Amino acid sequence: MVIHLSTSHGTQYFSEHLNQGGLPINYIKKSENLGSFTLFLKGLVCELSSINYDWNSEDFSVVDQLNCTSYLGKTFKNENIYDVAMQLAHAIVMGDNSLLPYDDTDSSLAALTQALKKEYSRAKNDHRTRPFSLHWKLYTSDDGTGTLYVNMDIVKDVSSLSIPGLNFSTCYSFDVFVAGILVGKYVRKGLERDEDGNVLYAIYTRITVGLGQDIKWNGEPVVEVKVRCDNDDRIFMTIAGCYPPNFDYPQIFQMLEDNQYRFGETANTEHNIAIFTQNWKVEGAKPIVICGKELYCHDFTKDLVLYEEQTNECKINQYFYSIYSRIFRQLHFMGRRIQL
Question: Among the four 177, 201, 239, 256, which has the fewest Cβ within 10 Å?
């Protein structure tokens, strides 16, 4: 059910439905009591900023699935509270005050509106930044050997929050090294603040240009990623992709061009290759040596079934949906289906 609120009597209706939900409006209009309900609303607009919610939908039950409801007491987790909260969030997301379920000329409610707008803006800015991550490539040779390379994803803007230990108040710029090789230089371009003006974190932007550099893997158990700050701090990071592929389980690479493949959890090109240890069996597998380790590989397009020596079956399937759907694969281990 959706409650449609009149803009001319918005605050009255807002008050009524809050009351029906067990939350008197005078309670949230007192600044010292904004606490948990405001945190719920901030969390709501933050989480909605990262999903494609259909605002034409009349189903607000999605709220019950969001983490922000943890800020609400059990008695406040009800349809009335969710309805008015989603209408408020709708106004914030659309940037249209006419959609607000109250008259924001009321100073207390206007302060709430501004706080939510800032939170939504901050959340959207966060989505424009990405943490560092590494990607793996495989180069194969006609002599039956393969070489793994790693490179860092090109990230234009990065938040200081994604670099644990970074002191943004004293660090104006930093360099990023992968396996001892410089891969990027970043400078601080701005500070993000809360509604009270307190600095939350810094945003750094990349000033070097060019494509990511492929760095040969020499068998290290972990690829070293180091941030060297201009304040002489040295930060060693554990990021996505810093561990090499574990060939004890079949690993899939997708062909980029002849003899060059990229590592991924799924097979999503016409030409894929699976690499695995001798414990896995499939007819037609060919030997390949990677960094001195003897392995096996097998090309495939859509479907490949590998049998583990102790009769465990690993089946790699492709499922194609429409162009608007995400391709996903499934692995079957010992009769159990695991979706990736």
Answer: 256
What Rg, from alpha-carbon coordinates, does the chain have? Answer: 26
Q: What percent of the chain has pLDDT over 90?
A: 27
Query: In the structure, what pLDDT confidence band is assigned to residue 146 with cuts at 50, 70 and 90?
Result: very high
Q: What contacts 303, CB < 8 A, 6 or more positions away?
A: 315, 316, 317, 318
List the one residue out of 179, 339, 309 whose CA is nearest residue 248.
309
Phi, psi of 80 (to 5 degrees): -65, -45
CA distance 340 to 337: 10
SS (H, E, C) 241-289: CCCCCCCCCCEEEEEEECCEEEEECCCCCCCEEEEECCCEECCCCEEEE
Q: CA–CA separation, 104 vs 112, rounded Å?
A: 9
Strands 199-206 and 181-193, by their bridges, are: antiparallel
Give the other-Cβ count within 10 Å of 35's Cβ. Answer: 12
In this prediction, residues 243-265 reach a mean pLDDT of 86
Residues 274-314: pLDDT tens digits? 999 988 888 889 999 999 999 999 988 877 888 887 766 66
Q: What secondary structure does DSSP assign to 147-179, as a single string?
A: EEEEEE---SEEEGGGSTT--TTT-SEEEEEET
